[in-house]
Amino acid sequence: MTTATAVADRRPIPQLNHSLTAARLPRWAPAGVAGAAIALGCAIGVGAGLKSHLQWGLIAALLFVVISFGLSAKVEGTRQAKDRLATSMIWVAFILAVIPLASLLFYTVQQGIGVVNGDFLTHSMRGVVAASGPGGGIYHALVGTLQQVGLATAMAAPVGLFTAVYLVEYGRGTLAKVVTFFVDVMTGIPSIVAGLFVLSVWNIALGFQYSGFSGSLALAILMMPVVVRSTEEMLKLVPNELREASYALGVPRWKTILWIVLPTAIGGITTGVMLAIARIAGETAPVMMLVGVWDSINANPFVGSQESLPVFIWQQYSQVNDQYGYARAWGAALVLIALVMGLNLIARGIARWRSPKSGH
Amino acid sequence: MTSSPPPDFSTSEPPPSAPKGQVSAEQPKQSSLKGNSRLGDGLFFGLSAGSGILLLAIMAAIAAFLIWRSGIAISKDQTNFFTTFGWDPDNILKPSFGIAVLAFGTVVSAGIAMVIAVPIAIGIALFISHYAPRRIAQPFAYLVDLLAAIPSIIYGLWGALFLVPHLNGLNSWLNDYLGWTYVFKLSQSGAPARSLFTVGILLAIMVLPIITAVSREVFRQVPRMHEEAALALGATRWEMIRTAVLPFGRPGIISASMLGLGRALGETIAVATVLSSSSVLSLHILDAQGGTFAQNIAAKFGEAGSLGKDALMAAGLVLFVITLLVNGAARLIIARRKEYSGANA
Amino acid sequence: MAKRIDVSGLSAYYGGTKAIEDISMTVEPRSVTAFIGPSGCGKSTFLRTLNRMHEVIPGARVEGKVLLDDENLYGAGVDPVAVRRTVGMVFQRPNPFPTMSIYENVVAGLKLAGVKKKSVLDGVVESSLKGANLWNEVKDRLNKPGAGLSGGQQQRLCIARAIAVEPEVLLMDEPCSALDPISTLAIEDLIGELKERFTIVIVTHNMQQAARVSDRTAFFNLAGVGQPGKLVELDDTQRIFSNPSVQATEDYISGRFG
Amino acid sequence: MAKRIDVSGLSAYYGGTKAIEDISMTVEPRSVTAFIGPSGCGKSTFLRTLNRMHEVIPGARVEGKVLLDDENLYGAGVDPVAVRRTVGMVFQRPNPFPTMSIYENVVAGLKLAGVKKKSVLDGVVESSLKGANLWNEVKDRLNKPGAGLSGGQQQRLCIARAIAVEPEVLLMDEPCSALDPISTLAIEDLIGELKERFTIVIVTHNMQQAARVSDRTAFFNLAGVGQPGKLVELDDTQRIFSNPSVQATEDYISGRFG
Amino acid sequence: ACGSDNNTTASTSPASGGSSAAAISCASKQASLMGAGSTAQGNAVDVWKAAYGTACSGTQISYNGVGSGAGVAQFNQGKVAFAGTDFALKSTDVDASKQVCTGGGQAIDLPMVAGLVSIVFNVQGVDHLTLDGPTTAKIFDGQITTWNDPAIATLNPGVTLPSAPIQTFHRSDDSGTTYNLTSYFAKTSGGAWTAPASKTWAGKGGQSANGSAGVSAQIKQVPNSIGYVELSYAQNNSLKSASIKTGASKPVDPTAANAAITLGNSTVVGTGNDLALQLDYGTSAENAYPIVLVTYEIACDKGNKADTLDSLKSFFNYMASDSGQQAIASKGYVPMPSAISTKVKAAIGNLS
Ligand SMILES: Nc1ncnc2c1ncn2[C@@H]1O[C@H](COP(=O)(O)OP(=O)(O)OP(=O)(O)O)[C@@H](O)[C@H]1O
Ligand SMILES: Nc1ncnc2c1ncn2[C@@H]1O[C@H](COP(=O)(O)OP(=O)(O)OP(=O)(O)O)[C@@H](O)[C@H]1O
Ligand SMILES: [Mg+2]
Ligand SMILES: [Mg+2]
Ligand SMILES: O=P([O-])([O-])[O-]
């Protein structure tokens, strides 16, 4: 009880300013500064004769960050200024991300929307001379992509999830270390190396022919590390007290993992799996090598070549290489993006349905 | 002391239910401490460990495959594999190939991508998790995910047809004002900006959604009570983020960045479409020179002979090792503060 | 049903540090045993060794024996899951499952044990929540998230969750510390009821509570900072509060409520 | 230094639900005011409106006025950050930063305020931890994670963290609920000292604690389930415990400790 | 299930080979045919398979443009029935093929698709450009760096050339196109091009781009640029092509007819059924365009897979037929002179 008296000899705490209404910038300040920065950016751009509008934007962004920081530092003090700096940088980051995103999307939609119609979505390229004119469609490629990505996901997602579960929930020994080590290496495999590996083992050594399935083997290899690592991170953040609460109810570990840990992390896990799907859905090189190309519908992923959307895009761009080829390529790209986004939405819907209820 | 259970207990799992709840009349309950939950647990553990082992086996097989093929190639290389610039493995008279240019280009372009993408991605992730009004945050999160859905080849085309022309101005500007740094010097002005620098920017855009998405999910997991603890100490929003959110998310950010880096290191078609590759190692990163491992594989694979393919595998192996070193370093950083894990909150 | 707990020579470690040392005691069935002692003396740690929850902390380990009706919890072949099903626990800090509604939180243990029948579950939810004195406050929002409750409500929810699976022994780590007197009373009443059938161990900092609800009281203490905690004495509650045999116990109790 | 708090017509909402309604009261400077009342009646909610922590919950909002020495916390141009710097808070559930060591936890607030000098920080760590009666237990492991402490230790760590920045008003939400009597006594002593200079508000379920430490006591209650909580009466502690003017208060207090 | 392979209504322009369906005699035993290899002949096979597929609906053909080397490798792994390659087989490839070609057979080269390499440029105000071997080689080797260089000016009297620096573009991937261009340089540059002919680019300076598509895109986009692509890419992208000054009386335009003259003068260097050709890059014959290329189909002379042999021969016959060769002419290819195609037809007849 004597210890408590130690507080009595309070040292002077340095400059803790205790005024509630420190001078603040008006609410419209950020907007005003943004406007001024943009105007200045354009002025400098014109004045210095900078051709690229990108530079104008960068200058404006920089000005915005600097001016709001300076202004705030002068009026509100350094802590507020730093807060504003962070806020404005985060907004700039947001805008920086929007530019390429908008540009890419605009570009793709603009180039691709012209060909995307019912015929395009329901026909294959069979009997169409791609280089001579329009016509044909991507149905065969759509089928191929869905099947290959579906098969790859069916193989890689469970393996990836379980591996992450192993690493977070069970793994402490050497095996865990070794698995971690290899997952890390796996993240950097160029897709073509994965393709070559499958080619050498599955197609050459074991003698299997072209098929959608052998392509999905390579895709699964590419998908696994993304699933493992993102899931691992999410599982690590599940509070231990929840696991303990479950154990204390006499719930076995596996049920705890399945019904308490995984649902708590489901949002993040979904994101990880979707990222992985997005990544493999756009792969070209290994698919070309293992699945081949096929201008007709082949709904059997286990026998014979199939087309896939990225390969279709690649062919239309690099080989057909005329206005019709370009149009088909962009149209297919548009469909591919929409496809992945659709899957993403569905997955999120499912995840939200089972995800943590809000609350503090 | 022996712990063998009484025989009459040994068969059944304790009936878990009490139809009328615990305040109801007593119910005879059987119980044994040697329940059969080990079966489910064993199975689940088996599945988990089995998956880990399967993954390990695949990777070990790939590694072995690469090492084997590399061995063949390197033994036939007439020049030093690590210092040679050119790539001519199928030359019957004098097979000669080396990774100097490729390693440089890969590391530089991925490095640029990381330097640009990581801060921006963290910024966007924070924007979504802590800054944006909820109504904007959700749709914007979807939009960023959309970036991940764009196939590499489209990035390549967009990069070559849109990004490069728009970067030409920036390039000469950098040369004019930062040329003295040597790094930003442009050897040939006026040429399209199809350089490692541009590739770095493109890769940054490509890895952005990966890093953003994973970081965003991590930031969302920060327990509210820690954020409140920081706010109650009089932290501004940014200080709260620095005190409670970023340290909590640190391992997650690092992992996310490693995932992004993996993609940047291994990206093939987009780089091949944008980069003007050559066997010149130029320290001026704005110059349209250089190459990356994956780009080189794409460019050389189609026409490669058998030694040529092995040589490409040898390059792939080096990329493996690079990936490994970077990831190892990241793991070390994370492990150092393991006992400060957010899960102990 | 209710079981006797016999602890002998039990020590528990966190990594290299010994948190409690050489504890031996008997907890009688159909009775309430209270653990008291200064903060950090190892009450929670000891409590967690009684249902093998201690070992879930990485690096934590236990030495010694805990007999539950002659069966050593730490014996070979003993399934910790079965132990925890038999020996339930309420934690010091309320921890409802964030992904679950109030209803789901209560039936979590049952559901995961395979009980599916809606009517059974409904009954359990109502009786458990009533037992934890929470029913009236939440009966209209059973499908709302459990995390949106006040601190005290959360703690009562966790108590309801623990009693819903009807363990034979119930360990409670300061179950009432976040509760107002009314809820505290309700919980104490509940404890009084439960002890008819179960063995109950409760950690509390509230001497009066210990005096009110427990039949026997164990006093823990630690010799000094960095030293492991030890059991000082265990005796009938009345004795402990009126005439403890060890001076330290007397000091501790009277130091506050003298 | 110490400030008077004047609340008038304050209501607080979680989304569409009103949690507390039309509360008006005055908290005197250099005094301790205790809030008592049944669980879920809105004590924590009200406490959090006093330093604008309520509004950080998504969808939460406040109506009414809180004057701090004539300055309305909810007035235009008031910076919530400045408010919280002036009005410190200890939460109901201990929440040390898991990513920080014990030392870093204590100085977190000061570091934010820009204090960097090691000697100053060292001094503050020692005096704050001593004030929270934790120093002896942790002085040898200041660099260990704060999350590896016992429940009571964690709560004392949070108290140390809050007093380290020397706020002018200190809000404490059941600060002692996880503490043993010795630590509780230490905290109560600390409160006694702090009130010489600061304004202190404490939520407690422990009537005796309210009686011991507070100068004035406010009793909150709610008319029924789903109804918002209200202030029933606020008076000198002695009056409240001996002769409350409202029957409900008397019932609540005597119902338990009569 | 809701998709359709039937494009007769969807396609506004029916397969252009459709009219020649009469020339196609379907295999008695129809099977799917897979081929892989050279990208240069990709569009030709595309045309053929469309026409052939219309006539013989039981035979489905796919062709995977993975590159000549990879195509030959896949052929030697038995993954495809035929391969397309820009280079005649090397002896090691032939040896390897003996594994797949059962019964003592081996792989042979059948010249089936011919083309030409255009030197494409994008210089404002310049519509016609004439170049010769040494000048072109020097431009691509970085020895001539501005458009108004005297060497270029001398070849183009009356043309106003800008003083801008020349932006050269070459292929970043290994390519038959590069091989043919550098073969031309090796023969005609008079020592300006020091490296041997190679599918890997060996010149100095300039920028590289991936594939003919990549090069075309750059030429289109970058002012004052020059590069080289197959004729079809030049046509598809509306790029201007330079005429080549050979020893002939006047510069030769890059047209299919002019390339056919050079091809007609080439000699067969293969033995037996192998019809590997030697092209004369140094030709000075009138109207003979020197930078030509030939791509081969690879099949086994004996020991082709029994179930695909019929279809293979039938398809090859159509490819080599006059109507087949005419069908690809409009796509920027050069119909094979009859001197060669006669030999090819004979060789196809001998396949077993
Ligand atoms: N996870 C852990 N890792 C390391 N040490 C721990 C951990 N949990 C508790 N300890 C230490 O073990 C000792 C006993 O802690 P325990 O939680 O059992 O105390 P307690 O008696 O329950 O205290 P309280 O009344 O404050 O809850 C303390 O010194 C504590 O710091
Ligand atoms: N985040 C939240 N969202 C929705 N409702 C909430 C939230 N937090 C609290 N409530 C509700 O508001 C009411 C008041 O809660 P509050 O936490 O203020 O009670 P309290 O008096 O502090 O209770 P206790 O003594 O149990 O801590 C309760 O009905 C509670 O369920
Ligand atoms: Mg404890
Ligand atoms: Mg509360
Ligand atoms: O056809 P190429 O790609 O080898 O030019």
From TrEMBL, chain A:
Subcellular location: Cell membrane
Cited PROSITE patterns: ABC_TM1
Gene Ontology CC annotations of this record: plasma membrane
GO biological process, one term: phosphate ion transmembrane transport
SUPFAM superfamilies for this protein: MetI-like
GO molecular function: phosphate transmembrane transporter activity
Membrane topology of the entry: Multi-pass membrane protein
Keywords noted in UniProt: Cell membrane, Membrane, Phosphate transport, Transmembrane, Transmembrane helix, Transport
Signal peptide: none
NCBIfam families (UniProt xref): 3a0107s02c (TIGR00974)
Protein function: Part of the binding-protein-dependent transport system for phosphate; probably responsible for the translocation of the substrate across the membrane.
Family recorded in the similarity comment: Belongs to the binding-protein-dependent transport system permease family. CysTW subfamily.
Protein name: Phosphate transport system permease protein PstA
TrEMBL record, chain B:
The protein's role, per its UniProt record: Part of the binding-protein-dependent transport system for phosphate; probably responsible for the translocation of the substrate across the membrane.
Alphabetized PROSITE patterns for the sequence: ABC_TM1
Alphabetized InterPro entries for the sequence: MetI-like, MetI-like_sf, Phosphate_PstC, Phosphate_Transport_Permease
ABC transmembrane type-1 domain location: 103-330
Positions of the UniProt region annotated as Disordered: 1-33
Sequence intervals crossing the membrane: 43-68, 97-128, 140-164, 196-215, 264-286, 311-334
GO CC annotation, single: plasma membrane
Topological type in the membrane: Multi-pass membrane protein
Gene Ontology terms describing biological process: phosphate ion transport
Organism per entry: Kitasatospora kifunensis (Streptomyces kifunensis)
Family note: Belongs to the binding-protein-dependent transport system permease family. CysTW subfamily.
Localization, UniProt: Cell membrane
Protein name: Phosphate transport system permease protein
MF GO annotations: phosphate transmembrane transporter activity
Comp. bias intervals (Polar residues): 24-33
Record's compositionally biased regions (Pro residues): 1-18
Taxonomic lineage: Bacteria, Bacillati, Actinomycetota, Actinomycetes, Kitasatosporales
Primary location: membrane
Keywords tagged on the record: Cell membrane, Membrane, Phosphate transport, Transmembrane, Transmembrane helix, Transport
Pfam family, one: BPD_transp_1
TrEMBL record, chains C, D:
Alphabetical list of InterPro entries matching this protein: AAA+_ATPase, ABC_transporter-like_ATP-bd, ABC_transporter-like_CS, P-loop_NTPase, PstB-like
Every ABC transporter domain range: 5-247
Alphabetic keyword roster: ATP-binding, Nucleotide-binding, Translocase, Transport
An annotated Gene Ontology molecular function: ATP binding
Protein origin, superkingdom: Bacteria
GO cellular component: membrane
Translocase listed as a keyword: yes
GO BP field: phosphate ion transmembrane transport
UniProt signal peptide: none
Protein name in the entry: Phosphate transport system ATP-binding protein
